[in-house]
């Protein structure tokens, strides 16, 4: 799934969260959005998900310009996006498997397909034994993996990951990154991951967009070009 | 076919989610059901009482509503003239003449088990009479006033004005009170479902937001709440109607005895099923409309 941002700015009142952002992410690309806290990484991902609207500029995802499309098209695009939210965003009164099932119901899978997907994805993130537990019964790392499982379950064309290693220990962080890399390599899933973990960013030879005070100060793609 | 299966599948999922919502807040759900059940209990009872009173009114309206007892010794032409005058009143349905002999025959028939009473009475004691039935009860009053002054012809007048008036007042009062109660209870049932669903939607704002971000359409998010409203309306409709029908079926023999010879309420399978179906449908409609208003207002996320 291709993502294009042209002259995108986002203001929150008098605060300019993002200023004149321009970049293009091609299908199958793995991109790190890095930068310190408050640099606008999460805002950028929220704009791509159409969770918030830009103050100005154009955002095109999968060939659809958010500004000029029907709401149902946004829903259709979102069904193909796997999101790992910074604060997990798991539904508190639903078990891990119910949280994943909701996502699969939204894309219209049958009960049989939902069951088999849940099992396969929970095995992948090593959380099968926790499938019946509720979010408040899970550790930080398990919550993060449950959120990842939900995102992966729909076999998305694009994964937006907002600080997915934020609450994980080193071992689990590397496991998660390996899994994302594997998905990117095998399924050609586009991945945009916001992080300030430089160790992870530097370990992979992937494109890096560096944000500071709401502006792109460095894009490794441009440097290579 | 595939589309049909998909609709069936999404409906089953919505039903599952609606049931999940109900189970997670059982007291709110119970209150919604109780209010709806009360509404439908009153509504069904009102319908049955109204229908029964209608039957009682019909009965009285179809009976001779004024009886004029004639003085003895009136000649045939005077009697015919009185009959003609009575017939000329508007909306008169029937003017029935009962001669002294016929009155005696009726009396004897009514008291055939008591020979002492029949032996002592002859036709000379019993007066001839006219029984007048009308379509418009107001005419009776005119007849009553006109013939009260004609002492040379009429010895006595029996006018069921009081009974009719009382019955009309009761019917009017019960219908007004019943309709008011039904309207108020429907409104409160509507309000209760609306408020409870709003509370539930507010409680599930997080879930709605997350589902929307995961690509759920507004309809996908709204459907379980709409189904929940329909469940409250339907269960309230069925429970309230069943209690009311059961109660009236139980009381029917006493009621029919009290209003004899009028059949106040006769429980039949067909009327039972018809009323239950109508009330259930009405419950679904109220549940759907109230939840639709609530959902529309609170799922703008």
Entry summary:
The complex is a heterodimer of chains A (225) and B (301). By secondary structure, chain A is α/β, with parallel strands linked by helices.
Largest sheet of chain B: 4 strands, antiparallel
Give the distance, in angstroms, between the N- and C-terminal Cα atoms of chain A.
22 Å
Estimate what percentage of residues of chain A fall within beta strands: 25-35%
Overall, the morphology of chain B is: elongated
Number of helices of chain B: 10
Low-confidence stretches of chain B: none
Arrangement of strands in the largest sheet of chain A: 6-7-8-3-9-10
Give your account of this protein's structure.
The complex is a heterodimer of chains A (225) and B (301). Chain A has 225 residues and is α/β, with parallel strands linked by helices. Helix content of chain A is 38%, strand content 27%. Chain A contains 8 helices and 10 strands. In chain A, helix 4 packs across helix 5. The longest helix of chain A is centred in the C-terminal third of the chain and has 18 residues, at 170-187. Chain A is globular, with a radius of gyration of 17 Å. The mean pLDDT of chain A is 89. Chain B has helices spanning 2-24, 26-62, 76-87, 100-110, 115-120, 137-148, 161-203, 205-213, 218-258, 269-298, and strands at 66-70, 92-98, 129-134, 154-159. In chain B, helix 2 packs parallel to helix 9. Chain B has 2 domains: 8-60 and 166-298, no CATH class; 64-159, Alpha-Beta Plaits (2-Layer Sandwich). Chain B is an alpha+beta fold and 301 residues long. Helix content of chain B is 74%, strand content 8%. The radius of gyration of chain B is 31 Å and the shape is elongated. Chain B has a 4-stranded antiparallel β-sheet. The longest helix of chain B has 43 residues, at 161-203. Chain B has 10 helices and 4 strands, in the order ααβαβααβαβαααα. The chains are: A alpha/beta (225), B alpha+beta (301).
